[in-house]
Amino acid sequence: MQKLCSAVSLLLRVAGVFDRYPNLKMVGAEVDCGWVPFWVQTLVHHWEVQRSWFPVKLKHSPADFIGKNIFTTNVDDYVGYDLIKTGLFPYLSSMTMFSSDYPHSATIWPNSRSVAIQMTKGMKPEDARKANRRGAARLAAVQALYQMDIAGTGVNDILAQFESHWIGREVEGDQYLPAEAAFFRDVVVGVLREQRALDPLIDEILSQGWPLKRIEAILRAVLRAGAYELDHRRDVPARVVVSEYVDVAHAFVDREEVGMVNAVLDRIARKLRAAEFDRATG
Questions:
Q1: Domain endpoint, select from 81, 105, 131
Q2: pTM of the prediction?
């Protein structure tokens, strides 16, 4: 309890920083979220009864920073996810992020997918999507493209690595359909094949101060994958493509950059698939 009170007192001091720097983020790695409701209750109580003499005068309640500035990651947090399912603590689904953390010695990899599915079973879809940003073929494709861009991994190696671990297999406690593996492969290989055409298309729409080569590698991967699918996967509605890659972006970047991804892909969609939007407004 003494350590908890010390942590609460420290955070109250740090919370003044969030008032001054509202975009600052703090992430507790592998600390779970099941304990957070009690911690928030204690945090707010200390602030309410002691703020008259506390040196930092906060503009907002400390609870307002949870899920906005303060986040946690988890590997297997069944208690925390059960609390999310109750709906009593809405900030929990916004503040916690699932991570398999391979090759950490305490990781649940290679069973990350099955554990995530088990923990989110019975959870509202919107909460599950927030808490568990893994598993989709699009997300895997973006991760693969990112790794290739950063580490220079060859396409054959990256495909083998991802597909042998979980894409299209049952080894992680959940059946991945061959179509999902084929979709993953199509996006990865397609982006590489069409990159010379995709990059100018994206760069044309980005604001002048942010040419594609200066965009973070993970955003390059998201935009390239989204642009490829908009141009070459006409079987998927444009609005679905944009929405899916905005969700992927949420897993890696903050709100401002997610907004940029949404705006860029929306403009690409309207340029490449104008007929779809004309039908929607006609």
A1: 131
A2: 0.52
